[in-house]
């Protein structure tokens, strides 16, 4: 007999893990009176694999935004920031409202809690990273980065001081993982396409640099694909510095561990994510990185009604004994399993373990170029690019968004870049660069 008295399911976070959990729960609990709610800072779900293309303008900003109310229409949405989690009382404290007009926090109670808050940009490893570098973990920062890059071109076009001009036209990406490489490729594509419209700026004046501490970029991928990516980037003018660390970042400079200083107006940090402080502070088992230790069923510790996934959880792959990678691919699979196991708990059925074989990895390199590892097979160039676009297009949850993205991609092949700045607010790190304001909080789901 179904227990209908314990059916309030609260999902914290509206990324891949959270939204796909809600989406799957709609099917798993169809016909029951279970109540599903999501707490997220915005009322949309960002399709993060395509976020770097916002920088180059290959797609428009709204095309990576999927309204949560459409993706999971039967879930109740609370647009707000999570400010506290109390596992003992089975409650969560939130603040909501566009202008925080509701000053008193609101308390939500749950019978099942899904922790999918995601991580926060890692800024503690390199002095100055949080103050002077862009991160693209949030849509607003990617949008601000595009505005900023266009501004550097505008300023360089009228700058008389050669040193100042050189600094304006230098773009440094710290971190040579998949995200860092994709960001560098999109920055290079943007400035390379745009330079023809700026009198007095030559392609040779532009400098795009990837700085990677490891012996090669794209460490998770096979060496032959990393080598292909390096060659492709360098052929298009991107400098790839490996075996190179960053000592610190200053207002207009990146100081490397080999004594070199790169003077740059634009620095992007892509050195991974740290555990969300709300997750790290919970009274539950954590690993050495602060992630919650989840069982194979994705339950946390001794709690029968607390589930963790995505960046918030360490889940071991039984085949390798190592944690599953924290990628969108795995977050979606974990979301489906959490939904299934919550439904099983409500129905008094046995839970299933997380058993999943990674399908592969793909990295876009811009200019109809990409690399992919699928089932142990390495693919590069145009076929990999077509595969990248086809796969992620199919993964978008709303058909209308797929059509819009396809149109933008087609237009991008033949139309010049749109070099306009929409100055609708400039989030961090521009506040620190101007000497005013504070960084946006990243802890609120």
Number of domains: 2
What is the number of strand segments? 23
Q: Radius of gyration, Cα only, in angstroms?
A: 22 Å
pLDDT averaged over residues: 88
Query: In whole angstroms, how far apart are the ends?
Result: 35 Å
Query: How many helical stretches?
Result: 13
CATH topology of the largest domain: FAD/NAD(P)-binding domain
Unreliable residue stretches: 1-5, 430-444
- Report strand order across the widest sheet: 7-6-5-2-1-8-19
- Strand fraction band? 15-25%
Structural class, judged by helices and strands? alpha/beta
The largest sheet, given as strand count, sense and whether it forms a barrel, is: 7 strands, mixed
Name given to the CATH architecture of the largest domain: 3-Layer(bba) Sandwich
Name a few traits of the molecule.
disordered N terminus; FAD/NAD(P)-binding domain; 2 domains; 13 helices; seven-stranded mixed beta sheet; disordered C terminus; alpha/beta; globular; four-stranded parallel beta sheet; 445 residues
Q: SSE layout and pairings?
A:
Blueprint: E1 8-12, H1 16-28, E2 35-40, E3 44-46, H2 52-56, E4 65-67, H3 68-71, E5 76-86, E6 91-96, E7 106-109, E8 112-115, E9 120-121, H4 129-132, H5 139-157, H6 162-168, E10 170-174, H7 178-194, E11 207-211, H8 223-235, E12 238-241, E13 246-250, E14 253-256, E15 261-263, E16 266-269, E17 273-274, H9 277-280, E18 292-293, E19 306-308, E20 313-314, H10 328-347, E21 360-364, E22 370-374, E23 377-380, H11 382-395, H12 399-414, H13 430-434
Parallel strand pairs: 1-2, 1-8, 2-5, 8-19, 10-11, 10-16, 11-12, 18-20
Antiparallel strand pairs: 3-4, 5-6, 6-7, 9-17, 13-14, 14-15, 21-22, 22-23
